[in-house]
Specification:
This protein is α/β, with parallel strands linked by helices. It is built from 20 helices and 14 strands. It has four domains: 133 residues, Rossmann fold; 165 residues, Rossmann fold, CATH 3.40.50; 73 residues, Helicase, Ruva Protein, domain 3, CATH 1.10.8.60; 61 residues, Arc Repressor Mutant, subunit A, CATH 1.10.10.
């Protein structure tokens, strides 16, 4: 439920708004200090603000000061100024300071409902747009706010302008090819071909000719000379996906190509110079394969001059929601569906689920949900998430993460407030009793001793 803050010292108006506003949670403050405390505590999207606040209710000075503080602390907050009928000048001054709108007393419930819900809708759209804009990394195709994906993206951005051989590591479905294409698109070779081949999807006896090409008559059925993937990538980028599945016998020929930058087609006798950048990817543990002699050590060091570890979706914080909204928009247009978003339960389930199939699994679940959805909001059962035991375990782990984060924030606020519990509570946006309760909950006994 959306939350709004009503700042007014008139208890009658507080009660009137509490019962008049539909579908929102209403919290109250009756002066500027309590308004700032409630703003920190509840982070409302919309604030209604009476300009005539104590200790100077006859003038607008205290209300305008509260407006400035609110917009300084939370610039995205939509502040609706409430004024008397003869106070249009101060209402316009508030708009100039950044207020969203103004409303003149007496309160008409239908009108104030319309203004507030319009403000809530605008605030929601702005938040979502800001999240999506922030999520677009410098690499374009790569979406995510989490520190893990941002770090991987920055690393990819740095190497894009070079020709250094790069090894992309990560579980299946994490987006290794997306990274490879992004690196190519931000390289000096961006106007040349990007050629991808999956070493695990082609039978061993065909993979050599797929990579290196073959001469006419090289084997039965070779009716014409055919270029391989390496030659077709001339001047551009060659992406070898799942290189950990490349047969050991073919690895020697690949190593020679990487060292000499020349190839020989199957059945050929002459060397052909090829200028390509090589990107490789695998979900396998190549170091373990080197140790058991199933992958050449010299090839491992040749393809992995720089490695980028792409994190699994379960380790990317709230990125799953950003990705889900991006895919939802794509599939909604693709299938002409009327789905607009996700229910709260669906969002919580996506956050808690471990996503063993990573982004590929998320895409499949959303595609199915968009096609089969009964209403405008995708419900949790329409996502058809499995492994409920894992889901429950993830919820437990999220509680642990929250405990660590809240404990750290309490300690920081306590020290910033110079060991003053009341000031620390205000910084955290909670009451003093709540802060004491959290200190007890997280066993921060040293803070109690200092206090």
């Amino acid at each position: 439920m959306e939350r709004i803050l009503v700042v007014d010292d008139d208890l009658g108006i507080q009660k009137q708004l509490k019962w008049a506003l539909n579908g929102v949670e209403v919290v109250f403050a009756d002066d500027r200090p309590s308004a700032i405390t409630q703003l920190r505590r509840f982070e409302p999207s919309v604030v209604t603000l009476d300009l005539g606040l104590p200790p100077d209710p006859a003038n607008a000075s205290e209300g305008l000061l509260a407006l400035k503080e609110i917009l300084t602390l939370a610039p995205g907050t939509k502040v609706i100024v409430v004024t008397g009928n003869d106070d249009k000048e101060n209402a316009l001054k508030a708009i100039a300071f950044g207020a969203y709108d103004y409303y003149q007393k007496p309160i008409d419930t239908d009108t104030i409902n319309l203004i507030i819900h319009r403000a809530l809708n605008l605030a929601s759209l702005e938040k979502e747009n800001m999240m999506l804009a922030k999520a677009n990394t410098a690499m374009g195709r790569i979406i995510g706010n989490s520190s893990s994906i941002q770090g991987a993206s920055r690393k990819a951005e740095k190497i894009a302008q070079t020709d250094i051989s790069t090894l992309l590591l990560g579980e299946s479905g994490t987006g290794k090819e997306v990274f490879a294409r992004s690196i190519h698109e931000h390289s000096l070779r961006k106007n040349k071909p990007f050629v991808a081949i999956n070493c695990a999807s082609i039978p061993e006896n065909l993979l050599e000719s797929e990579l290196f090409g073959y001469e006419k008559g090289a084997f039965t059925g070779a009716n014409k000379t055919t270029l391989g993937k390496i030659e077709t990538a001339q001047g551009g980028t060659l992406f070898l996906d799942e290189i950990g599945d490349m047969p050991l016998g073919l690895q020697a020929k690949m190593l020679r190509f990487l060292q000499e930058r020349v190839i020989e087609r199957v059945g050929g006798r002459s060397e052909i110079a090829v200028d390509v950048r090589v990107l490789c990817a695998t979900h396998r543990d190549l170091q373990a394969m080197v140790a058991n002699d199933s992958f050449r050590e010299d090839l491992f060091y040749r393809i992995g001059e720089i490695s980028i570890l792409i994190p699994p979706l379960r380790d990317r914080d709230d990125d799953v929601i950003l990705l889900a909204k991006t895919f939802l928009k794509q599939y909604r247009e693709e299938y002409s569906a009327k789905v607009k978003g996700f229910s709260d339960d669906a969002i919580q389930a996506m956050l808690a689920y471990t996503w063993p199939g990573n982004i590929r699994e998320l895409q499949n679940k959303l595609k199915s949900a968009v096609v089969l959805a009964e209403g405008q909001m995708i419900q949790v059962d329409e996502l058809a998430l499995t492994n409920l035991d894992e889901l429950e375990q993830r919820v437990f782990n999220l509680r642990e993460v929250r405990e660590v984060a809240e404990s750290k924030a309490i300690r920081q606020a306590y020290h910033l407030a110079e060991q003053n519990i009341s000031k620390a509570a205000d910084l955290l946006g909670v009451t003093r009793p709540t802060l004491y309760s959290l200190i007890d909950k997280y066993r921060l006994d040293d803070l109690k001793t200092q206090a």
